[in-house]
Amino acid sequence: MFLLAFLALIVERLTGYPDWLFKLIGHPVTWIGRLISQLDTRWNRDTDDFEIRKRMGIAALAVVIVVVILIAAVLQDVLLVIPLGPILLILIAASLPAQKSLERHVREVASSLKHGGLPAGRRAVSRIVGRDVQDLDEAAICRAAIESLAENFSDGVVAPAFWMGIGGLPAGAAYKAANTADSMIGHRSPRHEAFGWAAARFDDVINLPASRLTAVLFVAAAFFVRDASPLNAIKAIRRDAKHHRSPNAGWPEAAMAGALGIALAGPRSYGGQMIEASYMGEGGRRELVYDDIHDALKIARIADALLIGLFGVLAFFMWQV
């Protein structure tokens, strides 16, 4: 199914997910989100103890994944045998990766900073990060945007394409369902610490291969970007990735930081509470500017092209077998 992933990446890279289609029918993630929200409302009861809520969270995750796999499997089987069905299958698969929207949102942060100053930059970055933004200066806004680019390139582009290549539309959709569950309920909050435990742990496992592949892609992309350093990217991965609070996010963030000679991650505030976190990369802790976002986007665009090329090669060899 690497051919499906390859074609889906190309289509999404060129067209994105059309706004008119989103307004008309929504997006697969919104459909999955409604199911997760319903299960959270009905099964995550405040009156239950920790262990019961944890078991109900496991059951909820299983229901979401099984439902999504069954629907996607039936859809794929049907579309592969009807006229023009394969084209529709590719269009549906193209809704899973988010290359174009990720790039657009990150670019908007740089543009907002340049033309609207700090208030506009804070508004733009608040759309792609969960941290407190009201006190961020230009350097912190740029750091947040580049971190989001690196991490979301891994779990929003590479991971769905990887799993689609492994198991077709059902595997790609199942990944998207699990990742959506993690983003909605996989938090260490009083309400979701127990119910979202399974979603958070499962998301860590399924993102492991993509995070490592993303780091490799960023290292390779650094060869093609002026003043970027693939060697420093490798050094940063080896030195810093293991110190990140996430078992996966540190890989792409360290690779991006090392390649550009900057520092990412570090302390940040969530809900008024300062969270201590290790830095990824060094860069002399220099103050970042909006041009650094453009440099990070160059790395990501080349990495995306390398990913598409890799899947094209894999699809070709699988076709020959």
Automatic annotation (TrEMBL):
- Please tell me whether the keyword Transcription regulation is annotated for this protein: no
Which InterPro entries does the record associate with it?
Cobalamin_biosynth_CobD/CbiB
Primary location: membrane
Record keywords, A-Z: Cell membrane, Cobalamin biosynthesis, Membrane, Transmembrane, Transmembrane helix
Q: Topology relative to the membrane, per the entry?
A: Multi-pass membrane protein
List cellular component terms (GO): plasma membrane
Q: Which GO terms describe its biological process?
A: cobalamin biosynthetic process
Single GO term (MF): threonine-phosphate decarboxylase activity
Chain segments annotated as transmembrane: 20-37, 58-75, 81-98, 302-319
User: What Pfam families would the database entry show?
Assistant: CobD_Cbib
Q: Which PANTHER family match?
A: COBALAMIN BIOSYNTHESIS PROTEIN CBIB
The record's comment on protein family reads: Belongs to the CobD/CbiB family.
Reported function: Converts cobyric acid to cobinamide by the addition of aminopropanol on the F carboxylic group.
Protein name, entry field: Cobalamin biosynthesis protein CobD
Organism per entry: Aliirhizobium smilacinae
Q: Which gene encodes it?
A: cobD
